[in-house]
Structure formats: structure tokens, C-alpha cells
UniProtKB/TrEMBL annotation:
Keywords: Transferase
Annotated EC: 2.5.1.56
Gene Ontology terms for molecular function: N-acetylneuraminate synthase activity; N-acylneuraminate-9-phosphate synthase activity
GO biological process: carbohydrate biosynthetic process
Protein name: Sialic acid synthase
AFP-like domain mapped to chain residues: 295-351
Provenance organism: Bernardetia litoralis (strain ATCC 23117 / DSM 6794 / NBRC 15988 / NCIMB 1366 / Fx l1 / Sio-4)
CDD domains, alphabetized: SAF_NeuB_like
Classification via Pfam families: NeuB, SAF
Enzyme class: transferase
Length: 351
């Protein structure tokens, strides 16, 4: 894969750059603008690079108002129509503008998931620097083409998808003129179980598509996200709330501020730990190479002219003599000067 990078305001998304960490507020704001801003600030304080919302029009994807949905909210099972639920969390264009302005003020990147050309235009009008296409809309090729025509970088999630469906979406994006794309591995279960996460799909996507690869994490905890970064993900999206006990379908499996901060800090440590693939000692190890490695030394006092035998030679610290691998070059050779016990043996000591 080429090291393709995408510039979003003051951030760079791609290989060999800090992983972009997005707090997916989604619909957790419950239609409350004060709560939405509280969540934005909490995500910023936790170290997130961006916050993502959803700006949909319910009628874009639900025409049958009798479709039911069952979820857990505040520890209880809730059953209601999908239409009622989604309608309750819609954000107007003026609300989007207010949220974008607030993000700009505190210095965190705002982006969102629209579900129609109208939603895309709402985001364009407020200069949104990044768009997101959800897993459920991966097969909406017309929408992906509309995203591409804006020339705005796009993130696509691939939950529930086959490789062929992902390829269809990527080809459609490219054919329509798009060239800045991030592909997220995703499991569309809420929450996703460890056995279903299949993080090995990340290097598989990386070897297939010439775009930055990330991970939309629906698991509990931070382990899956860390594994994703270790496997090459350069973008992590994690559902986020200020309180798991708030009402709503996504609150209970979302990360709270403490968990998000732990994730951000752990990712930054992990990135340092990943380092380089070049196999060579570090600067810190150079001291150890000189002081902790072994060398060939005299096991006892040896006189000049003595013919070295195996029992005359020991391996001891520090590494200021010949390395142990040279012992066969020493056996049978005559010393041209005397050696004291533990004195390192050099080629200059033998005839």
C-alpha cells in the first residue's frame, strides 16, 4: 500500500501519523443542544481529535412507520417504532451550524453522517471538513457518488459488508471523482462481541485498497481498538457519552469520558511502542551491548607461549574482548603475552 495521507484541518490521517481518534456522539445528545455541547467538550478534554454526529432526515430511510425496534435504555428493554426513535434525535441545519461553531471554538474537528444529498448540502453550508457514510448506507451507491462529487474527504464504515460490496463502493467513489477516502473495518453489533471483531480484516483491507484503514469500534472497553492500531488502523471511531445511564439506544455501550481518555492515552503509548520495523539496537541498548554482552576471557592466569584449550576460556561480561562466536579461532593458538584471570582475549594476544 502507498502511504496515502488525508489532511483534515490540522490533522493528518494515514500511515506513520498519530491515529485519528473520533468520539461518535451520534444520537446520544438526545436532541438536547446543551448536552451535545457538554459531550463535545468532554471528548475534547479526553483527547479526541474529532466528534461525529448524525444529520439524517428520518424519511430518507424509513417509509414504513410501523417498523419496530427493541433496545436497552437505562437498563430496561424499550420497544418502539424506528420512525419515532430516529425522529426524536434529528438535528436541524441550524443546530448543526451551532455545533460546528462550538467545535471550531474549542478546537476539535466536527464531522457527521448524512443520509441524503440534502444532508450533504447541510454539511457543505457549514464547511464541514469530513463526511462519514454509515455501514447501513454502504450499498447506497448514489449517495456515495454524491459524496465523491463534493471533493470532501469521506470515511466509510463497512459493517455487514462483503468484500465485493466494499469494492463496489470504493469504485463508485473513485469513478465519481473522489480520491480522499478512509475505510473503516466495522462490526454492526451493539455491542460487538470479541469473537466477532475479526481484527485481522484490517491488514486484509489495507492490502486490498490503497486508502487509509481504520476501525469503528462497537465493543466494550479499549482492547479491540488497541489491537486495531497495532494491526495498522490509523483512524478509530468509538461511541461516546457523558453518562451510560442517559436515555437512548446507544448510551449503554458507549465509552464515557474516563474510558475515552484511557483509550487515547493507551493509543499514544502504543504508537510509541510500535516504533520501527528496522532490526537494530536502540540507542539505549548500546550501553547494554558494551556492558552486558559476553566476551572471551582468560579463565585463569595464563603465561606467554601457552597453547589455549577450551578449559582456558570463559565467557564473561563486559563485551570488551572477542565475542563467544570466535572461540574456535582461539583454541589451539599460542599466546604471545601473558593474561591475568578475567582479562579479555583479543586476536592481538595470539600468534
Amino acid at each position: 500500500m502507498l502511504d496515502k495521507q488525508i489532511h483534515i484541518q490540522n490533522k493528518i490521517i494515514g500511515k506513520n501519523t498519530p491515529c485519528f481518534i473520533a468520539a461518535e456522539i451520534g444520537i446520544n445528545h438526545n436532541g438536547d443542544m446543551n448536552l451535545a455541547k457538554e459531550m463535545i467538550l468532554a471528548a475534547k478534554d479526553a483527547g479526541a481529535d474529532g466528534v461525529k454526529f448524525q444529520n439524517y432526515y428520518t424519511e430518507d430511510f424509513i417509509l414504513d412507520k410501523n417498523l419496530m425496534y427493541e433496545y436497552i435504555s437505562k437498563g430496561k428493554k424499550i420497544v418502539e417504532t424506528q420512525y419515532e426513535m430516529f425522529k426524536r434525535y434529528e438535528l436541524s441545519s441550524s443546530q448543526l451550524k451551532e455545533l460546528k461553531r462550538y467545535c471550531d471554538e474549542i478546537g476539535i474537528i466536527f464531522f457527521s453522517t448524512p443520509t441524503s444529498e440534502r444532508g450533504i448540502k447541510d454539511l457543505q453550508e457549514i464547511d464541514t471538513p469530513l463526511f462519514k457514510n454509515g455501514s447501513d448506507f454502504l450499498v447506497n451507491i448514489e449517495l456515495i457518488e454524491q459524496f465523491a462529487k463534493t471533493k470532501t474527504p469521506l470515511v466509510i464504515s463497512t459493517g455487514m459488508a462483503t468484500l465485493a460490496e466494499i469494492d463496489d463502493a470504493v469504485r463508485a467513489f473513485e469513478k465519481a471523482g473522489g480520491d480522499e477516502l478512509v475505510i473503516l473495518h466495522c462490526i454492526s453489533s451493539y455491542p460487538a462481541s470479541a469473537k466477532d471483531v475479526n481484527l485481522k480484516k484490517i491488514p486484509a483491507l489495507e492490502s486490498t485498497f490503497n486508502y487509509p484503514i481504520g476501525f469503528s469500534d462497537h465493543t466494550d472497553g479499549i482492547v479491540a481498538s488497541l489491537g486495531a492500531v497495532a494491526l495498522g488502523a490509523c483512524f478509530i471511531e468509538k461511541h461516546f457519552t457523558t453518562d451510560k445511564n442517559l436515555a437512548g439506544p446507544d448510551q449503554h455501550f458507549s465509552s464515557d469520558p474516563k474510558e475515552l481518555k484511557e483509550l487515547v492515552e493507551a493509543v499514544r503509548i502504543l504508537e510509541k511502542s510500535l516504533g520501527t520495523s528496522k532490526i537494530t539496537p536502540t540507542q539505549e541498548e548500546e550501553y547494554g551491548r558494551e556492558n552486558f554482552r559476553l566476551s572471551c576471557v582468560a579463565k585463569k592466569d595464563l603465561k606467554k607461549g601457552h597453547t589455549l584449550k577450551r578449559e582456558d576460556i570463559a565467557f564473561s561480561r563486559p563485551a570488551n574482548g572477542l565475542a563467544p562466536k570466535f572461540i574456535q579461532n582461539l583454541i589451539g593458538k599460542s599466546l604471545n603475552n601473558s593474561l591475568s584471570v578475567s582479562e579479555p582475549i583479543l586476536f592481538s594476544h595470539i600468534a
